[in-house]
Structures are given as structure tokens and as C-alpha cells.
Amino acid sequence: MTLVTAGCGMGGGDDGGDGGAGQGASGGHVVYAEQFAPASAWAMETNDAHSLTRAGCLETLVKYTAEGELEPMLATEWTQVEPTTWEFTLREGVTFQDGTPMDAEAVAGALSHVLEVETPARAFNADVIAGVEAADEATVRISTPKPDPLVPLRVANANAGILAPKAYEGRQIDIVGTCTGPFTVTEEVPQQSLSLEANADYWGGEVTLDSAEVRFVIDGATRATQLQSGEVHIAKSLPVANLANLEGDDNLEIAQLELARTTVMLLNNSRPPFDDPLVRQAIQQAVDTQAIVDGVYEGAAAAAVGPFGPDTDWAPEGAEAVAPDLDEARALLDEAGVAPEDLSIQLLAYNDRPEFGDVAAVIQSQLGELGVDVKIKGGDYAAMEPDMLSGDFDAALLSRGYLVDVADPGGYLLSDWTCEGGYNIAHYCDPETDQQIQDAAAIEDTAERNAAYQELAAKLQEEAASVFLLHENAVWGLQGDVEGFQPHPLDYYVLTADLAVS
């Protein structure tokens, strides 16, 4: 991944009242503007767990670093003791923020809770994890239905985060005082904010800040405005439309980070017209992905070469974006026996991603040149997801992190591109591909496994399983007095023990 920073001012917004950006006292206070509000009452199997990790509260057995390495976190070592059994040795002397010990029984209980929920996590569920138990007071044993080299990566995911037993006693998860991280939640204003203070007993050592606040600011333009006014110190996922203005502010630092994330126009493979690969390929040929990158993202992205970014180990060597060719698109439709003017597609474009409205409009225009009628439907992602999962849609835009569930493409491929995958919104189903994906994810040798992923990426692109549009950059904004912050390629950590304001 590549990090590009713009702006190098060292100012700090206003002079800061209570909680305002720009405080420079020892210890200090940081306000972080988070993109998504918790949507599932902090259920650990949902994306809420990732928000709690970024808040510096929730921790996992294993840490996935910004450099793509696995490091000890709540576990100090791990071993595959048998083909289907892994053992994790817990860090000594760690207590939850309520004072209870983090022992093997507590950890096994936390992980078992995630396995038993009605809608399981994509990275850590009963299909890939057979069970979790305490082998002794300091050792947790995880068993799998079949050999799985990805288990350490699975427990590095926020969905496998560890909370105190008290957290699971009520009807919903209790996050107050039940984490192990550098910050403890002191107050929650539902859908608005979290107040946090430094964990004085943090196992990782001294926490530099005294306190912090996480604000849930859904609108990207509002996040940008609050950053520039000094109301917040750190803001994530800033709209590209605000970049020029922000980069000209000497009080701010703007960081762009290549993400393991691809925006795709999902085509519903389960019903006409997209059950015909020729029609999918025709749509793929008619979409100019570079025009979308240039016109909508203003360079803060790259045209997609398939599901994986071109600089990754999983993209086929020399892979390139599909060049638009309307004549080829018409020929493919003719071969399929479909007249362009007979195609009418509804394209879902959720407004949680502010750029999607513009992306949809560009696609509407491009397919219009082919003679295909495209109607755009906007709305919140949460409202659209049930129809998308059930297959009640034609096409939909989706921003998808291919390492978010498991920091290896195997997790993404299994969940998104197998017949029974838990997040197979494209409803792509090919038994041969299923077997290829399962075989690839089980390969122990990393280089050999990556080569298998390259073959799968090429197959999904060639078949136009859906139209891969672009590989995204994350745009972060910081007040100039923020120290110790490093954007993470998987958006895993923000509030850390080393974060400070000068």
C-alpha cells in the first residue's frame, strides 16, 4: 500500500474550549469524526465492532499491522498444533476495564458468543470455526472443520474482538468498561458520539492522551467542515470534492492511502438479463472506468483491473482495466440475442458513499450511449441491503474491502463469490469456481496461494461476474498538531496509546 500526504501545516484550528481541537496541554484530548454510526447496538458480528476498534476500546488476540504483518496483541503466540487445531497463548496480567481477568474462559466465551449469533460474521463463523475452548487458564484452543491456514488472520478481525463476560449478559452488548484497549467508554450518546478516557491500567503501557471523543458524522462534507473549523482533530473518508480546499489549508495534513477496497457495479447473476455472461460482458465493455476515476474521483482512485488492486500479490501479472468498446458491446449483445433498447436496468446507488450518485449518473450516461436505459435509485445502504442479499435487484454499486473480513483474499472470495457465500450479493454461482476458491484458501504456502488467487481474479474479470470499477484511496484529514497517527490500510486502528496532540 502507498501513503501519500499533502499539506504540512502545524497549526491547530481554534484555541480550544472543552474538547475543542487545538488543545496543546500535556495529555490532551482528541476528537475523531467517524464515518458510520453504530447500526447494530455494538453486536460483535457486525461492522460496529470495527468502529469500536477504531475507538481504541476493542482489541483482538492478534494484531494486523499497517505493514501487513501479524503481531501479538492479547495473545503472545499461536501454533497450529494439529491440522484442524490452533492454540493461542494469552498475554499474562491483562484485565478488562471492569477489573475482571482476561483468562482463557473469558476469551473462549467471547469468541463462542460470535459463533452462536443468528447472523454470523463473515470472518469468524460456524462454517469455518468448529469450536473454541479453554485448554487451560492461559491457552485458548480453536478448532476448524478442515485445515485452515487463515485462522490467525480470522482472529485479527474486529469481529473476533474480546470483551469481558459482563458485556454479553444483557439483551445487547455492553461496551462500557468491558474492553481491554487504551481507551474506555465513559458515555454514549446514541447515534451521535462516544466519550472515552485513557485506561490507566492498560497492559500496553502509558496512554499519551487523557481523553477522546468519537463523533459519528455520516455526511462527508460535514466531516470536512468540522475538520477545517477545528472542531475535530481527525476525520476519515473525506469527499474528493473537498480535497482541493482542504489541501490548501496550512493548518491541516491530508493523507491518501491506497486501500484494499474495490468499488464494483454488482450485476445480479441470478436473473435475466445478467444470468447471461454475454450480457454482463457487454455491460463491462460499455463502461469507461477511467472516465469515472477522472471525472468523479479526481484521481483519488485507480481504474479497476479486477477484484484486486494492480499492485497487490493477487492481481494477475500485467492486469489492465477493461478498455471501453461500444462496438464490441453491441456485438456481444447481438450474440446474446438481446437488443440494447430492450434492456432497462435499475441501478442502486446508496448515499452513504457521497460519490455514488455521480458514479451512477456517469454509468447511466455511458450505457445510454449503448442504447440501454438505466434508472437510478438512491437511499441508505441499510435500507437497500435486504433486497440486495435476497436478489431483488438488477444492479447495485458497492464499495467492498477485500481484506476487511480476513486479511487474505480467501475470506472475500469465499463470502462474495461462492454459491453459498454469506455476502454473495452478485448471486454468482459456479460449482467449479466454488471448488477453486475452497482449494486456494486451503493452500498453506503463501506464494502458491497467491498464484491461485491470481487465476481466480482473472476468471471473475473475464466472465464479467460483475463490473469492477475502481480501486479506492482513503482520504484522511488531520489537524497539524496531531502526532502518532498512522492510517491503516484496513481501517483497523485510529485512537491508539501513542496518539497525541502537541
Short description, anyone?
The protein is an alpha+beta fold and 502 residues long. 25% of the residues lie in helices and 24% in strands.
Walk me through the structure.
The strands form four sheets. Strands 1, 2, 9, 10, 11, 12, 13, 14, 15, 16, 17 and 18 form a twelve-stranded mixed sheet that branches. A four-stranded antiparallel sheet has the order 5-6-8-7, covered by helices on one side. It has helices at 48-54, 104-116, 151-154, 220-229, 243-247, 277-286, 289-295, 326-336, 356-370, 381-390, 409-416, 431-441, 446-462; strands spanning 3-6, 29-34, 62-64, 70-72, 75-82, 85-90, 131-136, 139-143, 183-189, 193-198, 211-216, 234-235, 252-267, 301-303, 344-350, 373-379, 395-401, 467-479, 482-483, 500-501. Strand 7 (131-136) and strand 8 (139-143) form a beta hairpin. The model is unreliable at 1-25 (pLDDT under 50). It starts with a strand and ends with a strand. It is globular. By secondary structure, it is an alpha+beta fold.
